[in-house]
Amino acid sequence: MGQSSGIGVLDKSVQVLRAAAAAPSGLAELCAATGLPRATAHRLAVGLEIHGMLERDGQGRWRPGPLLQSLAAGSPDPLVLAAAEVLPRLRDRTGESVQLYRPDGLVRVCVATAEPSSGLRDTVPLGTRLPMTAGSGAKVLLAWAPPATVRAVLPDASFTERALAEVRRRGWAQSVAEREAGVASVSAPVRDPAGTVVAAVSVSGPVERIGRRPGERWAGDLLDAAAALTARL
Fold it and tell me: Of 72, 93, 125, which one is at a domain's C-terminal end?
């Protein structure tokens, strides 16, 4: 368990971090490793996930998150630093939830978010790993992905190669109830200085509020935000 700092919640949070660092852990494993009650372990793990200190793998188990990885590397992640400036402005302009996704093999990882302070949200916790088979962010990342990745994903995707060609043509993607019922989104690609697509910036929210053609409302704002992120890289 390690030494006690005298600050109960801090010591318990470190216990959870140590357990997830030792091995990817579901709630039962966290409780067994830490001796914490289920409600306490879950609350702390979710809080650490929101701050990027933990993330979940494809099986929903907690493991060290992007913030810990960035700190351990000894240098800040330039994409995450850029997002801290750009995403809040996009959120304020649209009034909706904003996410930044980075590709990781056959999944995408939420590496930054900006949520409105009130109202119904489409909350995607920091560190969430989503499949590349549905959603506007997946379409954007797959549209410029290596051919081997495209071939691996398309058989199970809710869209086609023709849809990806359309994304490349117009420079953005939209989706309605693909990833989650009742949720619509629009996304645009973020490029590094060499022009390679390294992330997708997204705005998402309830279909009844942002409509079934969110690209008509937000594509311009998304492209501006993507350009701002690219410039900061």
Answer: 72
- Chunk the chain into consecutive blocks of 10 residues (it has 233) and report each block's average pLDDT, rounded to whole numbers: 75 92 91 94 89 80 78 73 90 91 90 76 76 93 93 93 95 87 91 92 87 83 93 86
Q: Do 65 and 99 share a domain, yes or no?
A: no
100 and 138 fall within a common domain = yes
**Domain containing 38 — which CATH number?**
1.10.10.10
Which of residues 49, 72, 95 is at a domain's end?
Answer: 72
Three-state SS annotation for the chain: CCCCCCCHHHHHHHHHHHHHHHCCECHHHHHHHHCCCHHHHHHHHHHHHHCCCEEECCCCCEEECHHHHHHHHCCCCHHHHHHHHHHHHHHHHHCCEEEEEEEECCEEEEEEEECCCCCCCCCCCCCCEEECCCCHHHHHHHHCCCHHHHHHHHHHCCCCHHHHHHHHHHCCEEEECCCCCCEEEEEEEEECCCCCEEEEEEEEEEHHHHCCCHHHHHHHHHHHHHHHHHHHC
